[in-house]
Amino acid sequence: MKALVGENNFDRYAACRVCGIRDIVLFADLNEADLALIQRPINEKVYQPGDILFSSGQSGETVFTVRKGLVKLVQFMPDGNQRIVRLLRPGALAGIEVLLGGPYENMAVVLQETTVCEIPVSVVRQLERETPRLQGQILARWHQTVRESEQWLSELSTGNAKGRVARLFLYLLHDGDDRCRLFSREDVGAMLGITTETASHTIAQFKRDGVVLENSRNNFQCNLAELREISGY
User: Average pLDDT of 176-183?
Assistant: First the structure.
């Protein structure tokens, strides 16, 4: 783990200023004078698959910006099964609910090697007081959270299994790319509200039909036209 900002006057804001995803993160609208107000370190940390950023009900003093990788937000059902309620990709903010003073609402589990910036809540509070530019980004993050939750319900939790799996592949693709990395079939099932067996069978059928090509374990090349047709897009 390394401290990106806050360690000394020189690099207090330099790393945030040159961040490769600066335009899509929480501090996107802050200028150099705003960033220079940060007094506590913002740490960059790399997590491995299976690592837990935070647990449901845990009190928290940190929000997390995903710089690279993929994180799942998990809810546990009364029967003990898990339901994945969102995926967090680069630029997403995890744990935003602690800014309201409450605990983390879900468990955040790393799916792929992930780099995050760990931002103390006290830093966010300080910047809220001293610069109005952050407030707009926080409101935008709340709106993004609601929009993505609604998208998750409407696109990945409805329709037949083939349509859901096709929409998941499309969701995981980056703009202009036809390749994506999947994860365990158990996680796929938990995301889509289908059984692990159904997830495995559907992906195997996609491979047989040439809808996707598995170049190496869980690394897929996708036929976008076929996926869109199956998904109903």
Answer: 89
